[in-house]
């Protein structure tokens, strides 16, 4: 493998290494290029843990089990450096900064805030200002061969068709960065909606600004941008279904699997542009090699998406989730609704307010009566908030061109195409989603797989409670309408009369036949 050999002996800097994508990137590097020199990771202490404790925790997870067989001294090849991306110069010490500037060969910039509801100030600091600061550092690295910036396929989601180019933003990033230095938080939050315009949230807008910064501050660096869509669990490497966070669809899968989420405002035929995390990592490593070796004259953008090559819609995905959770045949699952898909806003509000929140409130009352702490309303509000933030993305489809990604694939040797496979056309969605759901249960929720039959019964009970509650609610509302509306009484009288006449006719027909 030319790519694996390329990373041998290299000093690699990874930002966001403690995140989902960063962990899988480190695992792949150590497993395929165990003779690399060192991986620098920018970390800050968290929850009372030292840098070394955080690294130890990462390396002792199941994700790195295979790495320890190939690279037994993996602990010695990770160099954790204290850094805070919200501070000037990242608050890196002079000694550490000097080492980074003099030794780094490759940079993978994965760090970002992915919160859709983040404040503009915080999102700009991490997704824009920190990118500019890292580019400034990169320009002082004499041994740097490639700078790979990880953006998102939704950085230009205000467009229907998105090419592998950097699109300009209405306001220059530098002007926004300078303005945030003297504006107070109240004014910033007031002008934020006017700044983001037709972007759906702060995250996608600031990632678009980050791309502009990369283009403007690139100087003479060898830079590439990768835009993954919705990053999901591993497809093949190091094993199927690994996931460790509740971002994106993971939270919805948990909510549906636990029986908390019964309805979702979505367009069933909209493309669910999910991309496995190991596919993204393979593309990142291939792009790093190509950028360093071939040195393209301009900054190339690579889309890591699935919708245009191997599409899967939200209905198909939902059905597979249902089939996996309830252990029923796929054909049977297709005959049953996974969720109440609706594009009607009033209906969606009804489901959120009544079908979800009301049972949660009733359950919390039961917990209070039994002397336990109520928690269901809080959990349900969080679930509905997540569903609301994802609503924009699960009701639309986009077209992403993949010319550069396909060009890169053709440049790889057969061995590199096998070891660093990022061809999503080979992905079997039904198999992948089944592994995804089981991975959420096993690796994220830490649940015993032997408990699936019990979980199935739990889902059945919750579904029956859901149907019973809706039936009772319908009868109560109908009874109130009959008591207050003459039209409702007339409709009820007509229905009862029709049913009585139909039964009388049926009995008479049966008597004649006898």
TrEMBL record:
Keywords: Lipid biosynthesis, Lipid metabolism, Membrane, NADP, Oxidoreductase, Peroxisome, Transmembrane, Transmembrane helix. InterPro entries: FAR, FAR_C, FAR_NAD-bd, NAD(P)-bd_dom_sf. It catalyses: tetracosanoyl-CoA + 2 NADPH + 2 H(+) = tetracosan-1-ol + 2 NADP(+) + CoA; an ultra-long-chain fatty acyl-CoA + 2 NADPH + 2 H(+) = an ultra long-chain primary fatty alcohol + 2 NADP(+) + CoA; eicosanoyl-CoA + 2 NADPH + 2 H(+) = eicosan-1-ol + 2 NADP(+) + CoA; hexadecanoyl-CoA + 2 NADPH + 2 H(+) = hexadecan-1-ol + 2 NADP(+) + CoA. Residues 356-447 form the Fatty acyl-CoA reductase C-terminal domain. One of its GO terms (biological process) is wax biosynthetic process. Residues 14-284 form the Thioester reductase (TE) domain. GO terms for molecular function: alcohol-forming long-chain fatty acyl-CoA reductase activity; alcohol-forming very long-chain fatty acyl-CoA reductase activity. Its EC number is 1.2.1.84. It is a single-pass membrane protein. It comes from the Eukaryota. It is found in: Peroxisome membrane. SUPFAM superfamilies: NAD(P)-binding Rossmann-fold domains. The keyword Ion transport does not apply. GO terms for cellular component: peroxisomal membrane. The chain crosses the membrane at residues 465-482, 491-508. Catalyzes the reduction of fatty acyl-CoA to fatty alcohols. Belongs to the fatty acyl-CoA reductase family. This is Fatty acyl-CoA reductase. It comes from Macaca mulatta. The lineage of its organism: Eukaryota, Metazoa, Chordata, Craniata, Vertebrata. The gene is FAR2.
